[in-house]
Amino acid sequence: MTKHGVVLGPEDAVVAAAARHFSFPPPRTGGDSCRKLAAQVDLGAAVMGSWLDSMKASSPRHRLMAPLAGAADAEHDDWMERHPSALERFEALAAAAKGKQVAVFLDYDGTLSPIVEDPDRAVMTDEMREAVRGVAARFPTAIVSGRCRDKVFGFVGLEELYYAGSHGMDIRGPTADPNNHGKPAAEFLPVIEEAYAALVGSVEASIPGAKVENNKFCLSVHFRCVEEAAWGALFERVRAVLRDYPGLRLTQGRKVLEVRPMIKWDKGKALEFLLDALGYAERSDVFPVYVGDDRTDEDAFKVLRSRGQGAGILVSRFPKETAASFSLRDPAEVRDFLRRLVDANAT
Ligand SMILES: [Mg+2]
């Protein structure tokens, strides 16, 4: 298949590319990691405290409560110096990309759609969909999300994109064949199903507002509707369930705890996988643009930094530690940025 002036394989090329650079499925990490998890789980109060701190730190509600406006302004200005707006610096970005093959990688929640109380209602606007459609008509474009690939496809609804769901563990190219895609973590499916049922029974049943989502290759425990006083109890319940599943590990995103197979696979690996599948892995004249708002997107930003290519763009209203080079404030600015990308390549 030829698209955007490069020869792209169908999904079987995606899988073949994965086989060259990653063992497929990727190797399970061994007993050491399982022991590490056990150690982590058993550290008790100290670990619990640090997880709670982390859960609170990633909550926009806490940032909104930050006092000392003057100090916050200075911190924000300093951060913006180091991570300037991709809109304000658009001309410089376009100049850096000139003559190169641009490829666009987009997180979904908090990037293309606002973070909402009910994760099932995280729909994107028609204006955003049109902007993404415009970008995909000009550049290879992928959605890279922690969510189940089918769910993200349901939200976005554009056949012409690549979709990397479950943090990139479930990848599908822009064709209509739903069965032909990469499944780096397929061997974990039965375990994830079992852990999902256990988490629903333990966490959803006892913590008001908690919602466990089965993303097929990973599980999300959403606590955006849980009273902060119950976050500790929620974490304890999740941790207790995971003691029975040493092959699974716990990570944290924005108002969500995520349970994933203990394999080395993240959004950075997904980005490398997709670049390789597009035939760009060894090319120096490629300009990947990755836009994301979450801690899990940092792995992709780091890949771009280490490749010395393209631009990582963090979506955030608040200063935070990031490997991204640029920033955008919210999904509305992401939409405007995508429109400018389209306009700059209108001819
Ligand atoms: Mg996100």
TrEMBL record:
Could you name the domain of life of the organism this protein comes from?
Eukaryota
| InterPro entries documented for this protein | HAD-like_sf, HAD-SF_hydro_IIB, HAD_sf, OTSB-like, Trehalose_PPase
Instruction: Give cofactor(s), names only.
Output: a divalent metal cation
The GO terms describing molecular function are: trehalose-phosphatase activity
Question: Hey, which pathway is this one from?
Answer: Glycan biosynthesis; trehalose biosynthesis
EC numbers: 3.1.3.12
Catalytic activity reported: alpha,alpha-trehalose 6-phosphate + H2O = alpha,alpha-trehalose + phosphate
Q: Where does the signal sequence lie?
A: none
Keywords, sorted A to Z: Hydrolase
Instruction: Name the GO terms of the biological process aspect.
Output: trehalose biosynthetic process
Q: Does the keyword Hydrolase apply?
A: yes
Q: What class of enzyme is it?
A: hydrolase
Q: Which PANTHER family match?
A: TREHALOSE 6-PHOSPHATE PHOSPHATASE, TREHALOSE-PHOSPHATE PHOSPHATASE 9-RELATED
Q: Its family?
A: Belongs to the trehalose phosphatase family.
Question: What function does the entry list?
Answer: Removes the phosphate from trehalose 6-phosphate to produce free trehalose.
NCBIfam families cross-referenced by the UniProt entry: HAD-SF-IIB (TIGR01484), T6PP (TIGR00685)
Q: What is this protein called?
A: Trehalose 6-phosphate phosphatase
